[in-house]
Design brief:
Blueprint (H helix, E strand, L loop, with lengths): L1 E3 L2 E3 L2 E5 L12 H17 L8 H5 L3 H11 L4 E4 L15 H10 L4 E3 L8 H15 L3 E4 L16 H13 L3 E5 L17 H7 L4 E5 L6 H8 L5 E4 L6 H4 L1 H14 L5 E2 L9 H10 L7 H4 L4 H15 L30
Parallel strand pairs: 3-4, 4-5, 6-7, 7-8, 8-9, 9-10
Antiparallel strand pairs: 1-2
Helix pairs in contact: 5-6, 8-10
């Protein structure tokens, strides 16, 4: 928990990893390039004092992970989001099994999410069922741009994707996290497009679609979809670090998201180990939309920040939070703060 100026903030880091991107695990030049591309995001968007060496970034210890999140970074609960990338890494980049082993050694700290790929067909449905039973899955992370043999991506609207979403409904895996963000070498930009979110969100109203990285750089497309689909959420990984490197750009991002979605459908994420939650939490709590932008975007209140930093994700995953951080879901009066979504004709 983080406390500042008498305000308490329960922190759910909804997007963390325990990866092995080291040279020993890189299967080819694509694995090398992927690790180095991730590192460029880390190096270019972090405060200088938080930048790691490439060697540490490629493979950090379990001890470092736990210390950074829970002892230094204020995190109360962290959600593992796997990214397999088995075409690029010998043992996978960041698998459910790797994450789950860590979670079992630190009970109560982590939530383990699974993954699936519709290109695995019928066999993959059985694997998803086994994962759900083994790890008591409440969510999955989908990577639509992942390469598999000659295939360089897939869409949420593919026939087999629908089969897997139906299986998620059947298994009670209701939180569908989908990477829809910036291109990462060597993956293809178009495979991260948000256009396929619209159809599945309508078709599966019982599932929550948490669009990681809020579609950047396709923020406008994402917002127009999310305002029509009440089960679409925005995961703030990748957006958050701009609070340091480009604060006015971050103000625009958060202002647009709060205008179109409202404060109940945004979730904080560090994307650890790309960025460290400590400085992200501290800077977000201190952040305010600049005065010359407030006539359009309003202001960020402590209650809005509380929801984004932890309460929204806690609600998605049925996490109990202390009474001292609870927020009443009272409507916000017009002009008082950001968070009132527009009425857009269907």
């Amino acid at each position: 928990m983080y406390t500042k100026d008498g305000e308490n903030y329960y922190i759910v880091d909804s997007h963390v990893h325990f990866w092995d991107g080291s040279p020993a695990n890189q299967a080819n030049r694509y694995g090398k390039g992927f690790t180095e591309c991730f590192y460029d995001y880390h190096r270019n968007l972090s405060p200088e004092e938080w930048v790691w060496s490439l060697e540490k970034f490629g493979k950090y210890s379990e001890e470092t992970l736990v210390e950074d999140l829970f002892e230094v970074g204020y995190v109360d609960k962290a959600i593992f989001q796997p990214t397999y990338l088995t075409d690029f890494y010998v043992n996978g980049f960041n698998t459910t099994e790797q994450d789950g082993a860590v979670a079992e050694r630190h009970p109560g700290k982590f939530i383990v999410n699974g993954a699936w790929d519709p290109r695995d067909g019928e066999e993959g449905l059985g694997q998803l069922e086994a994962l759900a039973e083994r790890w008591n899955l409440r969510g999955v992370k989908l990577y639509t741009a992942e390469w598999k043999g000659s295939s360089k991506g897939w869409k949420l609207t593919d026939d087999w994707s629908y089969r897997y979403l139906e299986k998620c409904e059947e298994l009670g895996v209701r939180n569908i996290h989908v990477h829809k963000g910036p291109t990462i070498y060597p993956l293809n930009r178009d495979a991260f497009d948000v256009a396929d979110v619209d159809d599945v969100a309508t078709a599966f109203p019982g599932l929550n679609f948490i669009i990681e990285h809020v579609g950047l750089p396709r923020l406008e497309d994402f917002c127009w979809i999310a305002t029509q689909e009440p089960n679409v959420y925005g995961g703030l990984a990748v957006a958050m670090p701009f609070i340091h490197s480009r604060p006015r750009y971050f103000a625009q991002i958060i202002g647009e998201l709060l205008y179109w979605l409202d404060e109940n459908r945004l979730t904080f994420a560090s994307d650890y180990a790309i960025w460290h939650p400590k400085w992200l939490v501290e800077q977000f709590v201190d952040f305010q939309i600049p005065e010359d932008m407030q006539s359009e975007y309003g202001v960020l209140t402590p209650d809005i920040k509380r929801k984004i930093l932890g309460l929204n994700a806690a609600k998605l995953y049925d996490i109990d939070v202390p009474p001292s951080v609870a927020v009443a879901d009272a409507p916000v009066e017009s002009g008082e703060a950001v968070g009132s979504a527009p009425v857009v004709p269907a």
